[in-house]
Each structure stands twice: as C-alpha cells, then as structure tokens.
Amino acid sequence: MTDQVNANSYLDTDSSNICEVLQILGAKWAFLVLNELLRGPQRFNQLQRNAAVIKTQSLTDTLRHLEQNGLVLREVFPTVPVTVEYSLTEKGSDFQTALKEMNKWVEKWGKPQQVNGKTSISS
C-alpha cells in the first residue's frame, strides 16, 4: 500500500511538471520557433522567412509567449530603423536536449512512411 501511495505522489508531481511544460511549449508554433533560434539569433523577418508556415501575428504571439516564459530574449538596437533581434536564453538553449530526446523517440517509434518507394521514419 505504501508503494502505491509513493507511486501516486510521484505521478501527481510528474503530471504537474508535464502540465507546466505543456503550458509553456504548448503554443502552436513554440517548437518550430525554438528550433529555428537554436541556429542562432535572428531578426523577425529572417525568422519569419525561415519558418514560412507561420503567419506574422502567430509568430509575434509565439515570440511574446516564449519571451514571457524566459526562453527567448528580445533585444532592441537603437538604429534607424530600430533593429530587433531574437535569441535563446540559457533556459531556451537548454531545450535542445529535450528536442534531441524527442527526435530519438520518433526515430525509434515514429510511424514509417513511404518516401520515393522507400520506408522511412517521419520526423
């Protein structure tokens, strides 16, 4: 009985942690934006070109959300016109570890797809 109580306590804590992560990263385009910024700091238009599937307002909302949660740093440079650059904070950069683990999981368990007559794992 004690083991079951300890296991349930662990699961409650674990679920709570996962919910917290999903609130931060559950934004529709959060993963894509973080992945793009792992390549290095980018200005808004460059980021929008690289992540072409994201509409302007959605990218703005996602960047604000990630900035509010401490994953993205927004730097404004006093140029004419003003230059704004986005980069990952240490917290945001650390997400790379999680992305690599998710990629490993997809490589192992992802659904095989036919591409040019060959079977491959979607990623």
From TrEMBL:
Q: Which PROSITE patterns is this protein grouped with?
A: HTH_HXLR (PS51118)
InterPro entries attached to this UniProt entry:
HTH_HxlR, WH-like_DNA-bd_sf, WH_DNA-bd_sf
* Keyword presence, Secreted: no
**Keywords of this entry:** DNA-binding, Transcription, Transcription regulation
Q: Which residues form the HTH hxlR-type domain?
A: 15-114
Could you confirm whether the keyword Transcription appears in this record? yes
**Protein name in the entry:** Helix-turn-helix domain-containing protein
From the broadest rank down, the organism's phylogenetic lineage runs:
Bacteria, Bacillati, Bacillota, Bacilli, Bacillales
